Protein: C-type lectin domain family 4 member E
Organism: Acipenser ruthenus
Amino acid sequence: MNLKAKLHLAMKTIFFQSVGEEEEDGDGSKSLQSASGKESLYKKTSILLAVICCLLVSIIMGLSVLCSRMTQGNGEEYNSPIPVDYEQEEKVDEVNTGLPTHSSFTGNCSDMESLFFEAVLGSNITKNCNGQMCELCLKGWVLFNHKCYMFSKDIMSWNASQAQCRSKRGDLVKIQSEEEQKFISKTAQKKGGFYFWIGLADQAKKGEWRWVDNTPLRRGYWRQGIPSTGDVRQCAGMNPPSDSLNNWDRSACRANSRRICESAAVRLIHKANDDNDNLARV
């Protein structure tokens, strides 16, 4: 006899016992005082519990049948092994063994996280070591004076260019010295192209040029004959072939141009007593 049948029989027995007791009381064989309100409440509660048990058993059996059908219909999908990318696992292991210890890392955790995932995805790291100090940039970025620079090949509007730089943990370049201006101009000319967005615009207030970090422009390298202010709010870019130093120009921010992104280089320190530093494998 299955569980459902046993519960059904128990409910039936409880029901008829309660009915019989009520009839017996009606014949007067037992005093009306013995059939107290407490006993009547107990009988009703027992019947209610029995009914609930039967309902629960029915629900459980229904769910069991449903699960069984789902398993049979999708057996291959649920029982098939999950594919494992062993090559990707090996890359993760290599990166874990190649990264320096916490005590030897002086950069931000977010920078290390970025480098870690880039390495896992197969990108190489550009590094420059001087003594015990190493500075790292992502592949495709150029290292100069503790900064990493990326010269794009695709073209976008100024706002889209800034958003793209931010997605790479950087910003459109902020040029702070003549040395930096010359380096960027020379590198951009080698990369090819005629116009690159830089992180300078007068979008907030016409004629008031500010960098992407909202600091005001102190010194500009505007191309000769190009006024630094205009009738409409505009964004700044550089045209390297025109001049190695004074080559900034202004244009409508919605125009599509290449871009120059910058971010701080990640600094790592070699341990003085470690001849085979793991940095060599990053």
